[in-house]
Amino acid sequence: MAIYDTTLRDGTQSEGVSFSTEDKLDIARRLDQFGMDYIEGGWPGSNPKDQAFFEAAGKMRFEHARLVAFGSTRKAGIKASEDPNLRALVESGAPCVAIFGKSWDRHVRNALKVTLEENLEMIADSVAFLKGHGLEVVYDAEHFFDGYKANPEYALSTLKAAADAGADWLVLCDTNGGSLPKDIGEAFDVVRERFDIPLGAHVHNDGDLAVANSLAAVEHGATMVQGTINGLGERCGNANLCSIIPALALKMGRELSITDLSHLTPLSNFVSETANIVADPRLPYVGKSAFAHKGGVHVNAVMKDAKTYEHIDPSTVGNERRVLVSELAGTASILAKMKEFGIDPDKGSGRMVLDRLKDLESEGYQFEGAEASFELLVRRIQNGIKPPFRLEGFRIFVDVAGSNVSSEASIKVVDSTGAMEHTAADGNGPVNALDRAVRKALEHFYPELQKVRLADYKVRVIDSKDATGAKVRVLIRSTDGERSWTTVGVSSNVIEASLTALLDSMEYKLMKARDGKA
Questions:
Q1: Residues 103 and 178 occupy one common structural domain
Q2: Do the domain assignments include residue 285?
Q3: 54 in helix, strand or coil?
C-alpha cells in the first residue's frame, strides 16, 4: 500500500497557506523521516519557488520517499517534446512525475476547447514522452468520477490512452469532491477489471467524505492513496492522511511502509506550525480534542477501562488522553485531573473541588481552557496553599489628549514577609498598564517572573443581553519561553477579570518554580 503526500503542492492551495522554499524542504524531510512513500514537491514549470525547491531537494538524500514533480499533459497543438512544462518536469531531477489529464468530456470541450480525440492524443503523447526519459509516471485522471457519470466510455478511454503509453499508475480523482463512497466503489470495480496497472485515489473533501471515499477506493482495489497532512487543500481541502494512515494500518489491516505511527501527531503539529495556522483541535487521531473527555460518566468509565470511550490507544498515534473539567464533570473527572497534577486525592476532597467548580462555573468561569487556574483551585482546597503575595489595591488613570489616549496603573503588592512594593507603569491601554505595573511590582520580590510574558489575551462576554453591565471572561496565556499556561478571571469589570487572571498566572509560575518544575 503506497501513501502519496501532496501537502507541498495541493496543500499549498489552501486559503491562507504559503510555504517558503525552506519551509517545503523542512516538511519534505519530516515526511521522509515519517516513512512516506511519495512526496509531491510542486509544479517546477509554474513558479520560481517550486523551481528552487527541486534544485535544493535534488541535493537532499531521501531515506525512503520518492520525490515527485507535478504537471499537466502537453498543450494542444504542439508536441510533448516542445512543451516547456513537460521539459521542466524532466529537468526537475525528480525520479517520479505526476501529470493530470482531462477525463470529463465537459472539461475537454469547455475548458481545453479541443476535440475528444485530441485530448486522448495529448494524454498519450505526454505519458510516452516522460516514460522515454526513464521516469516513473503517475497519471492523475482529473474529474474522473464526474466524467464517468457523464460519459463512462470516454472516461475509460482516457485511462486507456495513459495506460497504453506506459503509465505506471492510474489515479482516479474526485476533483470536485462531491462523490459518494458508492460512486467511488462502482467506478473502481469497473476500472480494476479493465486495467492491470496499479490504481490510486486522489479525493477532495467538498462533501466531507474525502477520507471515507479514499478508504472505499482501497476496499475496491486502490493500492495508492493521495492526500495531505491535516487535509490541507483548495476549497474544503484534500483527503486527510492523518486520518487515512491510521485507519488503513489499525482498522483495515493494510501493510504500510510507515511502521511507527507515534510520530503522526508531532508531524501534524509541525505542518500546522510551519503553515502558521492554528491546528484544528477536533481533527480525528491527531487533534488536541481527539481523546479529550469531559462528561463525568465518560471519565469514570475511561479510568476503569480506556476502551469504553477510546477507539484506539492515544499513544499509538503520538497523542494523549485529556480529562476536561467543567460543571458536567463528576467526582471521577476531578480525581483523575488531580492525579495528573501529581496530587494524591481522596473522594472527599474531590467532592469539595467539584462543588466549588460548579459554583464558579455558574458565575461564568470556565476551566477546561484554563488548567493553570484549575490546578491552583485544587491545591488551595486540597493543600491549603496561599498566594505568596497579596494585592493591597490598584488605581487606573486614563488620559485623553486629542486623539491620543494613554493609561497609567498604580498598584500595591505585599509579599509573604509583609514587605510592600508600590509601583506605577504606563501602557497603551488600562489592561496593558496594569499588566506592566503588576510585573514591575512582583519582579522586585520574585526575579524569576522576569521571564514571564503574555502570549495571548482573550475576552468573552458571557451574557450579551446585559449589554455594558455583562460579565466578561478573560483568558490569559502566559509563557516563560519553555512552557506556557492559561489562567482565567471573571467579573462585570474587565479590569478586575484581567487582574484575577494575571495574578493567577504569576502565582502559578511561582508555584511551579517552588516545586522545581518551571
A1: yes
A2: no
A3: helix
For residue 417, count CB atoms less than 10 angstroms from its CB and return exposed for 0-12, middle for 13-18, buried for 19 or more.
exposed
The three grid cell numbers given for residue 315, joined into one nine-digit string:
499513544
With vertex at residue 133, the alpha carbon angle to CA 127 and CA 139, rounded to the nearest 5 degrees, is 25
Looking at the structure, tell me whether residues 369 and 401 fall in a common domain. no
Residue 355 lies in a domain: yes
* DSSP letter assigned to residue 114: S
Q: What is the Cα–Cα distance from 158 to 450, expressed in whole angstroms?
A: 66
Q: How many domains does the chain have?
A: 3
Indicate the burial class of 273 (C-beta count within 10 angstroms; 0-12, 13-18, 19 or more). exposed
Is residue 100, in this structure, part of any structural domain at all?
A: yes
Say if strands 453-461 and 96-102 run parallel, antiparallel, or are unpaired: unpaired
Q: Find out whether 224 and 254 touch, Cβ atoms under 8 Å.
A: no
Q: Which three cell numbers stand for residue 494?
A: 474587565
pTM recorded for the entire structure: 0.76
Taking the alpha carbons at both ends of the chain, their separation in whole angstroms is 45
**Is residue 512 left, alpha or beta, with left meaning phi > 0 and alpha meaning psi from -120 to 50?**
alpha
Residue 9 sits in the same domain as residue 138 = yes
Is 20 within a domain? yes
Range of the domain at 454: 389-514
Q: What is the pLDDT of residues 376-416, one digit of tens each?
A: 888 888 777 788 898 888 899 888 877 777 899 999 999 88
Contact between 264 and 5 under an 8 Å Cβ cutoff? The reply is: no
Residues 6+ apart with CB under 8 A from 332: 296, 299, 300, 303
Q: 421 - beta bridge partners?
A: 413
pLDDT in tens, 267-310: 999 999 899 888 899 999 999 899 988 777 877 788 788 899 89
**Residue of 42, 142, 143 whose CA lies nearest to 93:** 42
